[in-house]
Amino acid sequence: MDLYQAKNEEGSDLRSSSKIDDLIENEAEIIRLIKEDGKLLMDNGDGRDIHNIIQEDKLLSVEFNEVLKRFHEGEASDVTNSVADEDGDDKYDSKEHHEKSLRVMDTLKHIVNKEVIPPENFSHVVGEIYRSSFPRLENFSFLHERLKLKSILVLIPEEYPHENLNFLKLTGIKLYQVGMSGNKEPFVNIPSDLLTKALEIVLNPENQPILIHCNRGKHRTGCLIGCIRKLQNWSLTMIFDEYRRFAFPKARALDQQFIEMYDDDEIKKIATKKNWLPLKW
Questions:
Q1: Hey, which family's this protein in (predicted)?
Q2: Which of 214, 224, 228, 267 is labelled catalytic?
Q3: CA 161 from chain center: how many Å?
Q4: Domains of the chain
Q5: pTM (global) more than 0.85
Q6: Is 214 a catalytic site residue?
Q7: pLDDT for 144-188, tens place per residue?
């Protein structure tokens, strides 16, 4: 039974607003099919295969192609030089940032309402706290009109791009920057005091709604979110499961170790004193 048949039997509507969720519901199956270059994603007897369905929907096509591109890039890099590739994930590349915006905006130029375009790796965390990868030009309307952000917390040390700064100035969104390096062997680790400083910014209701991002929204952002989950008394199993889903396919053991070992006594004292805890959904 192929993926398209399975979705039909489950009554799933691939053209609904949850198309991507439906497509990635069975991650193992998707990965297997992608590795085989889609050879098993054949038609269901009606002349329409899953590739037709994706290509007929412009928004779905853009997002799916980005997923494929990131997957194949990650797979190739893991084979050649996984450490260098992880460094590439951490380091902000202004040229890449700009070129991605141009490509996506060119593809979506026919769409009138661009408020529906969130950044890559975007998700709600808790309350009015959100996470994502580095926002680009096509995401600005979503951040301002839909989320009505008050603040953005960026976790990279590089200079923030001018187009993003202009957007923040125009909309009155406040920027906080707590620059940190990702956890890497042998001796590079996120300083605990920086993580505590970042948490103090995020947990303050005066800064919310707030978006947290690094470069890809995977590792540094994942560590910060993992420490938020500790404050919510999540089990480590649940915390690591969430971390791995957003860091896929490059989850780092050092990140998970950092989350487990992070001493949250200080931030708990600060947050409790200021009535920021417990966090509310």
A1: Belongs to the protein-tyrosine phosphatase family. Atypical dual-specificity phosphatase Siw14-like subfamily.
A2: 214
A3: 19
A4: 26-65 (no CATH), 112-274 (3.90.190.10)
A5: no
A6: yes
A7: 999 999 999 999 999 999 999 999 999 999 999 999 987 776 556
